Every structure is written in structure tokens, then in C-alpha cells.
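We emphasize that the prediction below concerns an isolated chain of 192 residues; any contacts that depend on oligomerization or on bound cofactors are therefore not represented. The input was used exactly as deposited, without trimming of termini.
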Amino acid sequence: MNASAIKQAMAALPAQAVAENDHAKRGNHLDVTVAPDQVVAAVTILDGNGFFIEAITGVDWLGEKAARKKEAAAKAAAAAKAAAEAAKAAGQEPPPPPPAAPAEPEGSQVDDLEVIYDFNHYETLCRVTVRTRVPRDNPAVPTISEVYAGANWHERETHDFFGINFVGHPYLVPLLLPEDADFHPLLKDYKP
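Result of the prediction step, given as a C-alpha cell string:
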């Protein structure tokens, strides 16, 4: 099984991104990003091609959008300063400062949670990562436990730590946290 064949199979899905990687540098051969409603379809392709599930986990991207906005503003300020210095050195009038970035709509700074599924092939080394992002205020993705029964406890653990709801999961109760836990300790805004 090679990454190119899986990449071609994934092309049938409305995948947001499919990238072949150097396994030695990235730890996988193929990185697939899909919408939450396409996760089961992507996983079914992998199951049909002899892949097994290694892990499911989450990532909290809290602060990502604010950091990107800050980085873009810093780059724009540096470019404006360089342009002003170049104009001054050439004896010209400095260009006007760039317009301020438009205000973002209310709620657009809400960051996402990401669910990451890692797969490997039984016969030949071919690692595939499937990713999907869900909003923090409604972190829901369909369960893949009907395709891979072993995903059951991976999803329960991810739900424990990140609060991601795996819709259709047969038994989404705490696996490692107390039964009455109303917190998710791997969220960046968690306060003990």
C-alpha cells in the first residue's frame, strides 16, 4: 500500500487538504484534512485498504487566531517601516501607513478543537493521519467505532480530556476521569 493510492482514493471525498509527506520528517506518509461529516467516509476508505487505527486524540487551538492576527500585524508594521526607510533613503515622501485591519465579526475569534486519527497499514509501512476541526462551542464529530471497534476507547479518552462529543458512540462515558467529572483537563482554558 502506498500513499499515492490512498491519496487518489481520498480525492473522491471533498477533502479540504491531502498532502504526501516524508515519513522520516513528519512521521506519516499522508496527511488528510476533512470536514467532520466526511470523517467516517475517509476512515472507511482506510479500513477497506487494510489500515488499522493507532490512536485518536485532540488538539486545543485556543489562541491560534489571535496569534495569527498579531503575527500578521507585526509583519505589516515591519513592511511599512521598511518602505518608509527606503523612501527616506531615496529622498522621497514616505508612503501613507497601511489601513487598519477591518474589525472581525463577533465570535470570529473563537478557536477550534482538532480531532486527529492515526492509521497504519498491516503489511507495509504506510502511516496516514486524518484530521478534522470542530468549533469549541459545539465540538461534535461522528463516531468511527462502527468502522473500527477499537476506536471505542480512544474516543472515550478524547472525550474525557477534550470534551469532544463523538455522535453515535455506543457508550460515551468517562474512561479515565471520575464519572461525575464536568471538566476536560487538556483544554487550554481548564482551571483546576
